[in-house]
């Protein structure tokens, strides 16, 4: 199974908002000469409106439904690096689609790092609360087991540079490819 997943060439980045999925994904795709896709940007392009507007008009459930429909289409592409939305793992169908169609890389970060990266971003509907840092901690606690459940590789995207994170991912991908029958998870 691992060998088949490796042949598709798809790499899917999961993790909380602010973990660096888009930044790392763009650099990783450029480095590996793959096509980069940001699921949230693609959803905005498909709908013609920003994500906060979707949340406002359809609620989180409406947004998650649209996200699931889009993910089904995106994971069928080949040779891509896909940065998923932070909550994409909430639906079982999304986790199954990601796990079955590529190598899943969990970009892990501390609440402090996530807060430092997202605190001024008004384009994050779930953080528009009285205590956004506490909300980040709550979301991370809820979602971390789901990220780990489908992750083939876990990489911390804390204080290191994007180049260092890409290099670590590349090393773990090489180790995964060298031992396709070994246990899938390569945690770091």
UniProtKB/TrEMBL annotation:
<comment type="similarity">
    <text>Belongs to the shikimate kinase family.</text>
</comment>
<comment type="pathway">
    <text>Metabolic intermediate biosynthesis; chorismate biosynthesis; chorismate from D-erythrose 4-phosphate and phosphoenolpyruvate: step 5/7.</text>
</comment>
<protein>
    <recommendedName>
        <fullName>Shikimate kinase</fullName>
        <ecNumber>2.7.1.71</ecNumber>
    </recommendedName>
</protein>
<keyword id="KW-0028">Amino-acid biosynthesis</keyword>
<dbReference type="Pfam" id="PF01202">
    <property type="entry name" value="SKI"/>
</dbReference>
<feature type="binding site">
    <location>
        <position position="143"/>
    </location>
    <ligand>
        <name>substrate</name>
    </ligand>
</feature>
<dbReference type="InterPro" id="IPR027417">
    <property type="entry name" value="P-loop_NTPase"/>
</dbReference>
<feature type="binding site">
    <location>
        <position position="22"/>
    </location>
    <ligand>
        <name>Mg(2+)</name>
    </ligand>
</feature>
<keyword id="KW-0067">ATP-binding</keyword>
<keyword id="KW-0479">Metal-binding</keyword>
<feature type="binding site">
    <location>
        <begin position="18"/>
        <end position="23"/>
    </location>
    <ligand>
        <name>ATP</name>
    </ligand>
</feature>
<feature type="binding site">
    <location>
        <position position="124"/>
    </location>
    <ligand>
        <name>ATP</name>
    </ligand>
</feature>
<feature type="binding site">
    <location>
        <position position="160"/>
    </location>
    <ligand>
        <name>ATP</name>
    </ligand>
</feature>
<dbReference type="InterPro" id="IPR000623">
    <property type="entry name" value="Shikimate_kinase/TSH1"/>
</dbReference>
<feature type="binding site">
    <location>
        <position position="86"/>
    </location>
    <ligand>
        <name>substrate</name>
    </ligand>
</feature>
<keyword id="KW-0808">Transferase</keyword>
<comment type="subunit">
    <text>Monomer.</text>
</comment>
<comment type="function">
    <text>Catalyzes the specific phosphorylation of the 3-hydroxyl group of shikimic acid using ATP as a cosubstrate.</text>
</comment>
<feature type="binding site">
    <location>
        <position position="64"/>
    </location>
    <ligand>
        <name>substrate</name>
    </ligand>
</feature>
<keyword id="KW-0418">Kinase</keyword>
<keyword id="KW-0547">Nucleotide-binding</keyword>
<dbReference type="GO" id="GO:0004765">
    <property type="term" value="F:shikimate kinase activity"/>
</dbReference>
<keyword id="KW-0057">Aromatic amino acid biosynthesis</keyword>
<dbReference type="InterPro" id="IPR031322">
    <property type="entry name" value="Shikimate/glucono_kinase"/>
</dbReference>
<keyword id="KW-0963">Cytoplasm</keyword>
<feature type="binding site">
    <location>
        <position position="40"/>
    </location>
    <ligand>
        <name>substrate</name>
    </ligand>
</feature>
<keyword id="KW-0460">Magnesium</keyword>
<dbReference type="InterPro" id="IPR023000">
    <property type="entry name" value="Shikimate_kinase_CS"/>
</dbReference>
């Amino acid at each position: 199974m691992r060998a088949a997943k490796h042949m598709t060439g798809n790499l899917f980045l999961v993790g909380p908002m602010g973990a660096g999925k888009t930044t790392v994904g763009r650099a990783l795709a450029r480095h590996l000469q793959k096509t980069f896709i940001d699921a949230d940007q693609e959803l905005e392009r498909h709908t013609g409106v920003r994500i906060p507007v979707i949340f406002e008009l359809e609620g989180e459930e409406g947004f998650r439904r649209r996200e699931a429909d889009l993910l089904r289409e995106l994971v069928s592409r080949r040779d891509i690096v896909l940065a998923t939305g932070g909550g994409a793992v909430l639906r079982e169908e999304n986790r199954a689609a990601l796990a079955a169609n590529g190598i899943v890389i969990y970009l892990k970060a501390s609440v402090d790092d996530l807060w430092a990266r997202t605190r001024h971003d008004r384009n994050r509907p779930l953080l528009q609360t009285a205590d956004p840092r506490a909300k980040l901690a709550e979301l991370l606690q809820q979602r971390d087991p789901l990220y780990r459940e489908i992750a083939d590789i876990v990489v911390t995207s804390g204080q290191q540079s994007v180049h260092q994170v890409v290099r670590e991912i590349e090393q773990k991908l090489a180790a995964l490819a060298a031992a396709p029958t070994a246990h899938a998870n390569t945690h770091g």
